[in-house]
């Protein structure tokens, strides 16, 4: 009889427990969770705060009782594992209800402790109106603060997934919201120019978005004291009052609630104290079988370092999908199988009001940092046949190896069909497809769902034109630095220029270009742009085939414009 | 200077013309179209009739004038090509406006004539209230018949894409509608049991759906005669009246308009009269370069036979996506490149009221017909995290090689996220992924968009359990033929049985199974089912690990139930 002990009862741990039981009726399975809940929907927490998910109970996917009934798993909530005694293959546990301590032996141990919010050393953060959001008790406290503190204004620090979701939750509750982000963009998985679409959406919804702005200090100004109805820790007291925030630019801000969401850090205390290998990035080391440096101890989820699918290097990817699959795989391997983890692409998506922002693989910042030679294309095209109602622009960026055509990564932003396009790219990348092969993809098409040439086909056409030398391109970030030897040509219709154009551009609509080509100088490089890059390419081909030097702005004016948003 | 002549100005022809011009300013490009329109949105026609697409003009994507201005293409509408004179490399053309004839030479000829509606030899079809729908004039005539004939009841013959879309269009206009389909299912790209979901939806919307029913004869009963405001052919007269239909089962039906949509047939007249090779399936033969048996003549789109991606055999796939990509590729090759077509999977989707029905690759009927050994799995799971509002069930079927894990095909039906799942499968199949590899797919996940274990991951888990012998399954179509040695076990909660269950089943909820297992006989095979197959698998593993013989019904009661719809 194999005895499996699992530390952490959410995504990875819960998946492992269920899988282990399906594989073996005999195994003894014990799952420890120091909090009061197992298998809760942590990705749903902001949506309950914002009111999209009405019932708190819907977040509780399983209970200790349901786990026992269905999977015969001994779930011990409010039991904190204090240490791992590797020589004896035991753990020491504290029952948080009565503070008693005991040991439990294991044949295999699975570490699924997750990652905790990073709390920066900012003076004054320790106050009753400042929260992070990791679990149900955190959520309950935030809701309680909102309800008891008459919150008119909220401040969220950090423009990652949780920060953005909390920003939206506050907005839905009618609370004025400030979002502080130290970097020059939100949603770091995408590049700055793609984040511009998110910035525009965030501002359009009335959020006070402050980029390149850090929180420097916090002063708590209490008004009255209230008895707490706290569901979690007894020491947390809800107190009315407000916070005076001082920002890195010297500004001050008065707010009623503060959410710290600047990132997470792997929970490695147990592992490192037990002498397990910790990786350079600060996560628990695991091999492809999800084994730590101790073969009897496995680890999964947000706490571990895993292999990056694209680079093969170690990476930290705190996402639910990988955690779930790793948990399942760890159970397989603890019970005698040999399943190997295939690496993480970091496929991710975030809803930001009406937009979705998604990505897979490496972004341009990462490729630059790693010194990888890459090329990129931008496409903005309709989510489905534009003549059918409800089509929205998909803004799409693809990064690839200009020599081999290998896909490095993709990013997409828009109001419809964003998840689909990034899923397609995630599969293509994982399958090792090249951008050449993407041209041939045969995706679902009917007017309500797609286009005969899908976004991905179009991006592949553009990439292959570039690889084959059929087009010479210029990117949005080069436009502000043109030389005297270059001439800007706007090939849109005059009516389109009213909504913005590049200074100094000559305007010849593409459909008049053959007749008016002699207005253009042959000794200068013609830098062509249109709205999204498609007509620009038609004009580019005309000019080049007529002996002109030219470049086409990929992604057109739209990419240039939103890069500044 | 290369002279390219294109016959047919819609999807494939128009794509070829535009691509050819982008590659070469010098080429002379002439496009012939015997109808009055080029590059119209033929997939949008039913949606204009039904009112979703308000403006008729939105269907006209390009005009001869716009083609000339942008691409310097000489577009000749209302010019019918009468014959190809291969020895002289000319075509003979009739100008339909003045009936004059002339010849035009070519260096390369592209045939993109499309496919015409099959008109069966049914007595009485030739009447003014009977229509097919292929182009703008057809659409105009249907709209005119609706407007002038006070249509209260419509009959659509054929449950394919156009038939289903016309059915929905009539329903949207408040017209009572009968759909006749000779086969026992609509949407033949999916298998019968998956079509059941569509049947249920169609009936729920009040459509008079008659499967396994053919149209035998038609009698036109005119009432009054009207002057025609016809926009197309002058000989078409709109006349008030009704049609008396006689059906294969002897029933009769009175209707005000009849749409024949039983399928299309490649337009091969020009090609076969010119002695070009016609394939066994009746389409124009092409090689991988889209060349016909005459190297100067290329052909693309609905008129040709192309390579099936899965089987490598010849196939006829009249879909817009392949036509567009083939057109682009033919232009490449006419201008000296060597692009090869990679085969067609037949990826398709159809909106049927609130449902989407989609598929890629081979279906089970085709695999059976070809004698291919296959296995299949069914999954019914939420389109995104079920605790987030708006999740809908995705009903998913996957066909694969049980030995190699090769993906043969996939089908999906549901109200949300259907296009996405079939796109994922289309990419995975094209990339040559196995069902083993599908387990590792890392797809976008946030509660509004997906699940940490997506539909596709789950289907892959089920398939791999089956391949590895972790589960022994039974399929819905074996349930009605159980023997005395088998016992049906329903592991759902008693409350769920109220909405239907299998006769003779013993009910032990999965969460009570460990305690009540001794109620089950060890000498019989336990045939387990639940609602969708998931709890059934948990019960299956319990029973098998305790020494029972068991099978789990894949896809559960839901698959069984809708297979009969």
List keywords for this structure.
FAD/NAD(P)-binding domain; 5-stranded parallel beta sheet; globular; 565 residues; homodimer; 16 helices
Report on the biggest sheet of chain A: 5 strands, parallel
Task: Write the CATH homologous superfamily of the largest domain in chain A.
Answer: FAD/NAD(P)-binding domain
User: Number of domains in the coordinates of chain A?
Assistant: 4
Biggest interface found = A-B, 91 and 91 residues
Shape of chain A: globular
- CATH fold-level assignment of the largest domain in chain A: FAD/NAD(P)-binding domain
Give the end-to-end Cα distance of chain A, rounded to a whole number of Å.
60 Å
CATH architecture of the largest domain in chain A: 3-Layer(bba) Sandwich
Instruction: Tell me the quaternary state.
Output: homodimer
Quickly count the helices of chain A.
16
Uncertain parts of chain A: 231-236
Beta-sheet strand percentage of chain A?
A: 25-35%
What is the CA-atom radius of gyration of chain A, in angstroms? Answer: 27 Å
Q: What's the mean pLDDT score of chain A?
A: 96
Biggest sheet of chain A: strands side by side, in what order? 3-2-1-7-18
What is the fold's blueprint, element by element?
Two copies of one chain form a homodimer.
Chain A: E1 3-7, H1 11-23, E2 28-33, H2 45-49, H3 64-71, E3 74-77, E4 79-85, E5 90-95, E6 101-105, E7 108-111, E8 115-117, E9 130-131, H4 136-148, E10 153-157, H5 161-172, E11 176-180, H6 192-204, E12 208-210, E13 215-225, E14 239-247, E15 252-255, E16 257-260, E17 264-266, H7 269-273, E18 297-299, E19 306-307, E20 314-315, H8 320-334, E21 348-352, E22 355-361, H9 364-369, E23 375-382, E24 393-400, E25 407-414, H10 418-430, H11 435-438, H12 455-467, E26 473-474, E27 486-490, H13 494-497, E28 506-507, H14 513-516, E29 525-529, H15 534-545, E30 549-553, H16 556-563
Parallel strand pairs in A: 1-2, 1-7, 2-3, 7-18, 9-16, 10-11, 10-16, 11-12, 26-30, 27-28, 27-29, 29-30
Antiparallel strand pairs in A: 4-5, 5-6, 8-17, 13-14, 14-15, 19-20, 21-22, 22-25, 23-24, 24-25
């Amino acid at each position: 009889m194999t005895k499996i002990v699992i530390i952490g009862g959410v995504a990875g741990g819960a998946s492992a427990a269920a899988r282990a039981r399906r594989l073996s009726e005999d195994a003894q399975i014990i799952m420890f969770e120091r909090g009061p809940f197992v298998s809760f929907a942590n990705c749903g927490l902001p949506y309950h705060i914002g009111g999209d998910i009405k019932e708190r109970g819907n977040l509780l996917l399983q209970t200790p009782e349901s786990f026992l009934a269905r999977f015969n798993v001994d779930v011990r909530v409010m039991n904190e594992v204090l240490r791992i005694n590797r020589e004896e293959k035991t753990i020491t546990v504290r029952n948080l209800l009565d503070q008693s301590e005991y040991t439990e032996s294991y044949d295999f141990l699975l570490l699924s402790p997750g990652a905790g919010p990073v709390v920066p050393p900012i003076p004054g953060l320790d106050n009753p109106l400042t929260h992070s959001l990791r679990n149900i008790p955190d959520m309950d406290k935030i809701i309680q603060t909102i309800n008891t503190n008459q919150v008119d204004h909220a401040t969220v620090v950090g423009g990652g997934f949780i920060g953005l979701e909390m920003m939206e939750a506050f907005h839905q509750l009618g609370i004025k919201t400030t979002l502080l982000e130290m970097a020059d963009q939100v949603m770091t998985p995408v590049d700055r120019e793609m984040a511009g679409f998110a910035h525009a959406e965030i501002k359009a919804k009335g959020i006070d978005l402050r980029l390149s702005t850090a929180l420097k200090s916090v002063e708590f100004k209490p008004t009255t004291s209230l008895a707490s109805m706290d569901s979690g820790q007894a020491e947390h007291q809800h107190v009315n009052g407000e916070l005076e925030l001082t920002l890195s630019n010297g500004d001050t801000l008065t707010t009623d609630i503060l959410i710290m969401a600047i990132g997470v850090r792997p929970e490695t205390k147990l592992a490192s104290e037990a002498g397990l290998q910790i990786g350079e990035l600060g996560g628990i080391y695991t091999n492809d079988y999800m084994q730590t440096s101790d073969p009897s101890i496995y680890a999964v989820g947000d706490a571990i370092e895993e292999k990056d699918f694209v680079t093969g290097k170690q990476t930290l990817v705190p996402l639910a999908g990988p955690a779930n699959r790793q948990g399942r795989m760890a159970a397989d391997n603890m019970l005698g199988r040999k399943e190997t983890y295939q690496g993480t692409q970091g496929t991710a998506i975030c809803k930001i009001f009406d937009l979705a922002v998604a990505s897979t693989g490496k972004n341009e910042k990462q490729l630059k940092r790693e010194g990888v030679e890459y090329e990129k294309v931008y496409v903005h095209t309709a989510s489905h046949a534009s003549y059918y109602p409800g089509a929205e622009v998909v803004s799409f960026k693809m990064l690839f190896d200009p020599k081999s055509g290998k896909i490095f990564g993709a990013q997409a932003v828009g109001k419809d069909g964003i998840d689909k396009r990034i899923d397609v790219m995630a599969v293509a990348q994982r399958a090792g497809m090249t951008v050449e092969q993407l041209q041939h993809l045969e995706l679902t098409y009917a007017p309500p769902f797609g286009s005969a040439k899908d976004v991905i086909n179009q991006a592949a056409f553009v990439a292959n034109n570039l690889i084959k030398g059929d087009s010479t391109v210029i990117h949005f970030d080069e436009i502000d630095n043109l030389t005297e030897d270059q001439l800007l040509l706007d090939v849109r219709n005059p009516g389109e220029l009213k909504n913005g154009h590049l200074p100094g551009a000559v305007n010849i609509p593409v459909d008049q270009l053959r007749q008016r080509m002699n207005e253009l100088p042959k000794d200068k490089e013609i830098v062509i742009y249109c709205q999204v890059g498609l007509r620009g390419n038609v004009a580019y081909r005309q000019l080049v085939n007529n002996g002109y030097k030219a470049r086409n702005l990929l992604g057109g004016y739209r990419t240039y414009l939103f890069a500044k948003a």
